[in-house]
Specification:
It is a single chain. The chain has 645 residues and is of the alpha+beta class. Helix content is 21%, strand content 29%. The structure holds alpha-D-glucopyranuronic acid. Alpha-D-glucopyranuronic acid is lined by residues 227, 395, 458-459, 516, 545, 590, 610, 612.
């Protein structure tokens, strides 16, 4: 008879006398109590040592998620995964809240009819991966906690290869096991992570188990309150990646910021290996170049070239091919320069107005996270209809599919990490978490020509601690990518005598001073005409949020909140006011589409939606849409006018 001692079973040995203690509480027999205690403590010690050993070993298997995963030699693990909801984390902790070695990651099945195994993935329901559990199982609509995922798969091992297990994103705390062996623990719900499973994966049957937890916490990034749905689950693609023993981990093929006739090319291998031949090809530019790695496993070269430049009007992408150690990576890369000059943002050396809209990574029509290029295309097409050449992807890294589709559609992008509202500024682990997400976002998307701004924060309260935290993030971003603009969404929340002042120490550390303001919604619309704005920084200004709510199809007079007429007038007043603000080089109204938020409970009006969209969740345009569309038409034609010297 086998008993798989489990979560709510105590760690007890199978000796009969142990059982006895449990049963007759009245007269304890000291000799057996002591021997029992000895057995238990020895057992606990073994369990603990085994756990520490296994978790210590686990960390080693995490590797940097290689850039451009989509054109690597991959096997998708998307599809139906079994899941078990585990509010008390019994699959991970025993009844003393100690990590157990008999957790759900063992994926145990009873071996005989008397065996006790109190869970079974094989019998459990399935849900699609990638998805969110909130929109896959209505019982989990509001659920915040742990859900276990499991799937079996076949694999054919090949000599001379490494195998990686890649997750596009898991929201937001993931522990991963392969064949019962722990691979690692990843925190951060919006960026990719990866494990080298070459020595764990089996030739034939395999099973992967993921413990996903989306509980909110003050010290997390994002912190424990935010105005979007706390979706949980394996929200982006999962895949196995076959690579050569030493593979291309990262590369940059980019137009030089100072010289539009020079390409900077950089390649980094996973391992520091000297003399590896890397071939770079850009057929349309008749470029075929061989580079050889140095002892760090990196290679760098500058190549003269005259590419047509990427721009929203002309989103030209060039086929680029990189080969090393028998692996071929192909990519589509655009070449452009981005810079600032006083209040101007210069794209390819010319001033451009960023005609934008802010959006969440939420699928149209059915909500949940965006998981396909088609869903991304739908959202981005709505932005194009609005007259946009730019989108603010708020407040966290969106699906890579969205960023790539925006590049093909000619939309510049602001990307952001969820340092949102009041963060645990003095907590070093929180800072490391933010840096990690910044690193991973930049590594994933730094080859995208349309990504022009990295944003490090949104609406954060002023303090010395905050400035220290954010300034170190801004500096860190520049060490990861010195070719793009750094910004953050500051706030103007009040005005003395109708004079609005943007006053933020962080202006020093950013290239673009952006701020959110809500005249007309959280502040009285009637004040808009009287408002003046004092922004003394000689940098481009972006109004990164403004707007107000309306329920699609609800009509009334402009005084009546939640009507389309109220939102329409709010936009008319705001855009007229913004026309009077000096130095504005871009806008991203809040927000493209009504999106889900647990902070919006108003029944019959919000019903868990933030209603500030210019589109309803079903893609219906509200009246305010046309106000913004008109304004962008004017901005576009102004941009096309020849500039006076
Ligand atoms: C804030 C915040 C958004 C939020 C918006 C709102 O400015 O940045 O995330 O959704 O206001 O209140 O609608």
């Amino acid at each position: 008879m086998i008993i798989i001692p489990h979560i709510n079973a105590r760690i007890v040995s199978l000796q009969p006398e142990n059982l006895m203690i449990q049963q007759n509480k009245s007269k304890p027999n000291m000799k057996s109590v002591i021997c029992n205690l000895k057995i238990r403590s020895r057992f606990a010690l073994v369990a603990l040592l085994a756990f520490v050993a296994s978790s210590a070993a686990a960390a080693d298997l995490e590797v940097t998620a290689p850039t451009n995963i989509f054109t690597r030699n991959t096997i998708s693990l998307n599809g139906d995964w079994h899941y078990i909801v585990d509010p008390q984390e019994i699959g991970y902790y025993d009844y003393r809240m100690r990590p157990t070695r008999w957790g759900f990651f063992v994926n145990a099945e009873p071996k005989s009819k008397s065996d006790l195994v109190e869970y079974s993935f094989a019998k459990a329901e399935t849900m699609k991966v990638p998805s969110t559990w909130n929109k896959s199982d209505e019982r989990l609509f509001f659920y915040e906690g742990t859900v276990w995922y499991e799937r079996d798969f076949q694999y054919e091992k090949r000599d001379g290869e490494r195998t990686l297990l890649y997750f596009g994103a898991v929201s937001n705390d993931a522990r991963v096991w392969l064949n019962g062996k722990e691979l690692g623990h990843h925190i951060g719900g919006f960026t990719p992570f990866c494990y080298d499973v070459s020595d764990v994966i089996a030739d034939g049957n395999n099973f992967v188990v993921v413990k996903v937890d989306n509980k909110r916490a003050k010290e997390n990034i994002p912190t424990n309150i935010f105005d979007w749905w706390n979706y949980g689950g394996i929200i982006r693609d999962v895949m196995l990646v076959r690579t050569p023993n030493n593979y291309i981990e990262d590369y940059v093929v980019q137009l030089d910021g100072q010289n539009q006739r020079l390409l900077n090319c950089f390649v980094r291998l996973k391992q520091p290996q000297e003399g590896v031949k890397v071939t770079l090809e850009i057929p349309e530019l008749k470029i075929k170049k061989s580079l050889f790695t140095n002892s760090n496993g990196t290679a760098r070269v500058q190549i003269k070239a005259r590419p047509r430049l990427w721009s929203p009007e002309n989103p030209v992408l060039y086929k680029v091919k990189l080969q090393a150690n028998g692996e071929t990576l192909s990519d589509e890369i655009g070449f452009r320069t981005i810079a600032t000059r006083g209040h101007e943002i210069l794209l390819n050396g010319k001033p451009v107005f960023l005609r934008g809209i802010a959006m969440h990574d939420e699928a149209p029509f059915k909500q949940g996270r965006v998981t396909t290029t088609e869903e991304a295309h739908t959202l981005l097409n709505w932005a194009k209809e609005l007259g946009c050449n730019y989108v603010r992807l708020a407040h966290y890294p969106h699906n890579e599919l969205t960023v790539r589709e925006a590049e093909r559609m000619g939309l510049m992008v602001w990307e952001e990490i969820p340092v949102y509202w009041t963060i645990d500024w003095t907590n070093n682990a929180t800072l490391e978490n933010a840096k990690r997400q910044l690193h991973d976002m930049i590594l994933r998307d730094h080859s995208r020509a349309n990504v022009v701004i990295w944003s490090i924060a949104n609406e954060t309260p002023h303090s010395v601690e905050r400035d220290l935290f954010l300034s170190s993030l801004a500096k860190y971003a520049r060490t990861q990518d010195s070719t793009r603009l750094i910004s953050m969404a500051m706030e103007v929340t009040g005005a003395k005598n109708f004079v609005n002042r943007l006053n933020d120490n962080m202006h020093e550390f950013v290239d673009i001073v952006a701020f959110n303001q809500y005249v007309g919604w959280y502040r009285d619309v009637k004040t808009a005409r009287k408002m003046t704005w004092e922004i003394t920084y000689n940098k481009p200004v972006i109004i990164s949020e403004f707007g107000g709510g309306a329920v699609y199809g609800r009509h009334g007079d402009a005084e009546e909140r939640w009507t389309e007429e109220f939102q329409e007038r709010l936009y008319e007043e705001n855009l007229a006011m913004i026309d009077r603000i000096n130095g504005v080089a871009g806008t991203s109204p809040w927000v493209l589409m009504d999106f889900m938020s647990p902070r919006r409970p108003l029944k019959g009006v919000q019903d868990w939606f933030n209603r500030k969209g210019l589109f309803s969740p079903q893609g219906q345009k509200k009246k305010a849409f046309y106000v913004v569309q008109d304004w962008y038409k004017k901005k576009k034609s102004a941009d096309e006018q020849p500039k006076k010297k």
